Amino acid sequence: MIQQGVNELNHLRSQVSNDPALDRQIQQLITDMEHLDLRRFPGNPAMVEELHQRLLSGVDTLELQLRRQLDDKSSGQVRSSDPLTAPTGYEDAAAEYFRRLSSVTGSGREK
Fold first, then answer.
1. How far apart are the C-alpha atoms of 48 and 13, rounded to whole Å?
2. Total tally of structural domains belonging to the chain
3. pTM reported for the whole predicted model
4. Is-contact 55 29, C-beta < 8 A?
5. Per-residue pLDDT of the chain (111 residues; tens, 9 = 90+)
6. Torsion of Cα atoms, 86 then 89 then 95 then 97, to 10°
7. 35: domain range?
């Protein structure tokens, strides 16, 4: 499971290579995960849990930063599928809807 996490972080790292701060943060998480040897703490579940929580916190922080960057890049853009394509069989109804919608005045009545 740890190796899978390291692989995922390496893949993510290759995608954000243009951001040195994120690259350092990802590298630190990779290093922490690679040095996490649960056999060093036999019989100490509290220590294992603390290490686990520390790693999760780092991953959560990284995820939050990436989401903020994505939101900043896509601000002002609507996230949806192709809004101009009506489902098959509804083309005429959609066209009529938009015709009526465009003829409505500010008071909600048709012209």
1. 26
2. 1
3. 0.48
4. yes
5. 677 777 888 888 887 777 888 888 888 888 887 777 667 767 777 877 777 788 878 888 888 888 887 777 766 655 555 556 777 787 888 888 878 877 775 445 554
6. -90
7. 2-73
